[in-house]
Amino acid sequence: MISRAHHLHCLFSCFLILLFVQLSDGYDPMDPNGNITIKWDFQTIDNVYTVMVRIYNYQLYRHIELPGWKLSWTWAGDEFIWNMQGGEATEQGNCSRFRGETIPHCCEKSPVIVDLPLGAPYNKQVANCCRGGVLSSTVQNPTRYMTSFQMSVGNLNGNNIKTDKPSNFSIGIPGYTCSDPIDVAPSKFQFDKHRTTQALMTWEITCSYSQFRESDLPGCCVSLSTFYNDTIVSCPHCSCGCQTSPTSPKCIREGEQPNFLQLPNGDEGSTPPVVMCTQHMCPIRVHWHLKVNYREYWRVKVTITNFNVDRNYSDWNLVIQHPNLRSLTRVFSFNYQPLIQYGDSNDTGMFWGIQSYNDMLLQSGNSGNVQTEMLLKKDTGEFTFKGGWAFPRRISFNGHDCVMPSPDNYPSLPNGSPTMPALVHLLLGLIPLLLFAVFLYF
Fold it and tell me: What is the DSSP letter of 249?
C-alpha cells in the first residue's frame, strides 16, 4: 500500500515537472498571452523599400529594462540599410562596394539596431521612438509599451522581398527567443477622423520569454514572519547561489568597502550582480509579514530589499499570487492592479512604486528598500491562519520568480495557549464548584 507521504511526494514531483515544461516553453500562467511582437509595415515595395518597424511589449508585468532592446536579424540576400530614423545600427560594416558621396547607413549581413536615447535630434526621430531601448509593461505604463524606427532598405541582387525574408531574429535580451517573420494582414492606421490608411504589406515576429533560458539562478527570494510567532523564516539557503560557488554572484561582506573601479564593466543590467554576502545570495529579498489580525480584516506588511551593491532598480514591479487578493481593501504607498480575473477568481495582483516617490529601489547601502501595507477583508468560510494559507503562493520581482521557503518551515500557530472559547467553557465549568463551595461555607 502506497503511503500518503509517498503519494504527496509523487504529486509534488509531477507539479515541478509540469511547471518546468511550461516555463521552458515560455508559458506564464500569470501572463498567458504575454509576448513581444515586432511588426514590419512596408510603406513602399520597390528595389529600395521603406519599412516602419514597430516593437510592442504585450506583457502584463514584464518590462524591458536598461540597457534596452537590441534588435538583430540576418538578411536573406545582399540587402543594406540606406538610412534610418528613430534608431541606428551599432556597426556600419563594409560598404567599400559603394562609391561617391552616398554611403549606406549599414552594410552588415546581420545588423544590430538600437533605440536612440531620450532627447535625440528632432530630424532623426519618428513617432514613439527614442526611449533608450526601455519599454514598459502594458499594466505599469500603457503609454510606453511600444517603440518604432524607420529604415530604407536597398538590395544588390534583386531577391524577392515577399519570399526571401530575413531570419535569425533576436531582441537582444536574455531569456527571449524570436520566431521567423510571417505574413499577416496589413496594419491599419487612423489618419484622421475620416480616413484610415494601411501598410502595403506586414510581417510579424513574436518573441517569447522563459526564465530558464535567461539564467540557471533565480534573482530573488522570499522570507516570512508573523505577529503570532517570534520565528522569522529566512530565504532558503543558497536561493540564488552559494558564496563558495564560482557560478554564484560576487559578494561583499558587511563593513567591507566595495571598489567600484573593479566592479564588472558593461551596460546596467547586462553584467552579473555584485551583492552583499548573505546566506541566500539574492540581489532582491521580499519579506512578507502578517502584522495585525482584526475582527473582519487582516493587515500584511511587504518589504522589498535591494542587496545589489551597484544597481538601482527603476520602475520596479512586484507580482503576488494569494487567494485573498480578491478582497483587497486598501494598499498603502504602492500602486496596485489585478492581473488575471476569471469570474469570481482574482488571486493575482501587480504592485509598483508611485512616480517620484518610491518608483526607484536604490542599491544596497542607500536606504535600499521600499515597503507597503495591505488591508484585506476576511473571506467568510475561507480565511484561516492555519496551514500557511495566509502566506503568498507565488511572488515575482521584475518578472523573475522568487524562491519561496518550504511550507514545512512556515511559522506555526501557537498550540500551548487556550483559545477564547476554551477559556469560556473552563469558567462555565467552574461556576457549579464555586456555588457548592459558597453553600458549604455558609
Answer: P
Q: Label the pairing between strands 345-353 and 334-342.
A: antiparallel
Residue entry with cell 501595507: 373
> For position 102, what pLDDT does the model report?
85
CB 96 within 8 A of CB 72: no
Give the H/E segment covering residue 425: helix 420-441
d(CA 383, CA 385): 7
Please, are residues 130 and 118 in contact by the beta-carbon 8 Å criterion? yes
Tens-digit pLDDT profile for residues 407-437: 999 988 886 444 333 344 444 445 555 554 5
Cβ atoms of residues 248 and 239 within 8 Å: no
Which segments of 385-432 are extended strands (E)? 394-397, 400-401
Q: Which of 268, 186, 221, 147 is nearest to 406 (CA)?
A: 221
CA distance 138 to 352: 13
Q: CATH number of 216-256+272-409: 2.60.40.290, 1.10.150.130, 3.30.750.200, 2.30.42.10?
A: 2.60.40.290
Cell of 442: 455558609
Reported pTM: 0.81
**Pairwise CA distance, residues 238 & 260, whole Å:** 25
- Give CA–CA dist 366/258, Å, rounded: 14
